[in-house]
Specification:
The chain is mainly alpha-helical. It folds into two domains: 12-91, Helicase, Ruva Protein, domain 3; 99-151, no CATH class. It contains six helices and no strands.
Length: 152
């Protein structure tokens, strides 16, 4: 029974935030703001993990940077803008819908619509051509030659 409980508890374990005790701010409201900001920033080492969940050194540096900017009096948006200016828009887990990102967001659905249009046109053309398609029937001489080849 103990083994079953241990296995179930390990299976249901959730990732723990990687924020170290020495990083936590004394002001709970300020710490909550820091957690909100860091939950939306991507760890540049771990890729699809927030800096709040990552144990990488760069993530730790970014968490400390966020807290330093908050202590300096920056608003949440100013902190995010500072990090984006420094590391690029890739650092955002939820990228903005402007500029080049807008093209990337729109390209997927547009390509899907183009593929559906091409597929629909192909199917319509196949239906129009009939089951034999546009292939001409064999002449009598060609049919005789084919029968001769197949009989060998």
């Amino acid at each position: 029974m103990k083994k079953l409980f241990l296995i179930l508890s390990l299976m249901l374990a959730t990732p723990v935030a990687a924020v170290q005790p020495d990083e936590i701010l004394a002001d709970p409201a300020m710490e909550e703001r820091a957690r909100d900001i860091s939950a939306g920033l991507r760890c540049l080492v771990c890729r699809n993990e927030s800096i709040d969940e990552s144990n990488a050194e760069l993530a730790r540096d970014l968490r400390l940077l966020v807290r330093e900017r908050l202590v300096a009096g920056d608003t949440n948006d100013e902190v995010v803008d500072f990090v984006v200016d420094r590391y690029g828009e890739y650092v955002l887990l939820r990228p903005t819908l402007t500029g080049a990102n807008l093209v990337l967001w729109i390209a997927g659905p547009v390509m899907l619509l183009i593929a559906l249009g091409v597929g629909g046109a192909y199917i319509a053309r196949r239906r129009k051509d009939g089951p034999e398609g546009t292939k001409p029937a064999l002449s009598d001489a060609e049919q005789a030659r084919l029968d001769e080849i197949l009989s060998q």
